Amino acid sequence: MKLEDIGYNDRIQKLRNDNNLIDFEIGRVISEHKERYIVKTEKGDFEAEITGNMRFSAKSREDYPAVGDWVALTTYDSDFSIIHKILPRSSVISRQAVGRFGEIQIIATNIDYALLVQAADRDFNINRLERYLTICYSSKVSPIIVLSKIDLIDEHLTFEIIDNIKVRIKNVPIIAISNESQDGYEKIKTIIEKGKTYCMLGSSGVGKSTLMNNLSGKSIMRTDAISQSTNKGRHVTSHRELVIIENGGILIDNPGMREVGIADSTSGLEMTFDLIIRHSKNCKFKDCTHTSEQGCSVIEALEKGEIDRASYENYMRMEREKAYFESSVVERRKKDKDFGKMLKNYKKDMNKNKC
User: Where in 152-288 does DSSP place strands (E)?
Assistant: First the structure.
């Protein structure tokens, strides 16, 4: 195994030089299990932990390694290693941490493309697609829409779904596939390049793990059939894992995401809802909320049918969610600052008492 096989390139080499990490070994995090990591190196796969200094200096979960990270480490004969530093990331796919407002959960790092997988028979939801697109655009990751399980619907309905996507989502490749017959696989194989990293995003049961198994040529991820009683996918993948597939592409599978909360995604929203943003520049007021103002270009375009109403409603919902997330971040930082100040005063008082 060469480092180039898992995506090592001149950019990583430069980062290694610039950060004075030549004396350390370099590897890539391929899976994570509760702050214990599997790192792939030229010597093989090593279980790893971070140094105490890294843990102590970490300000948030974003300062810990994630699947896709390049790390500087020291390896030992027992297949164990210590991670000393995370190399700067080229991209980070993240979302709001579930149940913890104001915090970010990293999904994967150093991603080139995201495969947005939705099942044509039951899971298809354009609103959710727009959420995934927003996450991708804010992460500077190129999205590719994968419509799976087309064998479960007729061909006419497949074309209808694709046409509906194109009405609201522009300039994003759409690939329709069947994991059973492998229709569409040739097309998806042509877009996966050797040395590039692809992250699969989608709900449970849409066929991400089966797609990975088929592309890799071996059974890597466990898969279950759809529940006959609920017609819903069973949650099988329990952790993120990086795998090299047959043609040399690098694929990361993810547990199904029930919630896709956007974080600080101003640029992502602007790219996802480009038409709405373009109309908003013609609004009479700079702080227009696009709800009831006179002279709102967005509302005028909506009434004329130039903007899709469902897309507009999804945009407004995500804008409110983004604003709430940003206010939560400010509030959390204020609490952290107040706690730090209290701790500093406590230490000062303790020192006075000792004197």
Answer: 174-176, 197-201, 241-244, 250-253
Q: How far apart are CA 23 and CA 197, in angstroms?
A: 26
Name the one residue in this structure whose structure tokens are 């229709």.
183
Bridge pairing between strands 80-86 and 70-75: antiparallel
Integer Cα distance of 341 and 153 in angstroms:
61
Kindly report the three-state secondary structure assignment for every residue of 157-194: HHHHHHHHHHHHCCCCCEEECCCCCCCCHHHHHHHCCC
Length of the chain: 355
Task: Give the pair of three-digit tokens for residue 302.
Answer: 């909506």
pLDDT tens by residue, 10-31: 999 999 999 999 999 999 999 9
Contact predicate 174/148, CB 8 Å: no
pLDDT at 338 over 70: no
Residue 266, both tokens? 């101003």
Alpha-carbon distances of 146 from 28, 107, 315, rounded to whole Å: 26, 19, 22
Residue 9 class from Cβ within 10 Å (0-12 exposed, 13-18 middle, 19+ buried)? exposed
Which residues touch 149 (CB under 8 Å, ≥6 apart)? 119, 120, 121, 178, 179, 206, 207
Which residue would you say has higher pLDDT here, 240 or 99? 240
- Alpha-carbon gap, residue 81 to 301, rounded angstroms: 58
pLDDT 10s digits, 180-229: 999 999 999 999 999 999 999 988 888 888 998 998 876 655 444 444 44
First-to-last alpha carbon distance for the chain, in angstroms, is 61
Q: Average pLDDT in the 140-163 region?
A: 93
Q: Give the angle 323-328-334 at the CA atoms, nearest 5°.
A: 130
Picking from 53, 55, 75, 74, the residue whose alpha carbon sits closest to that of residue 64 is 55
Give the Cβ contact number of residue 284 at 10 Å.
10
Tokens 């609004």, residue?
Answer: 283
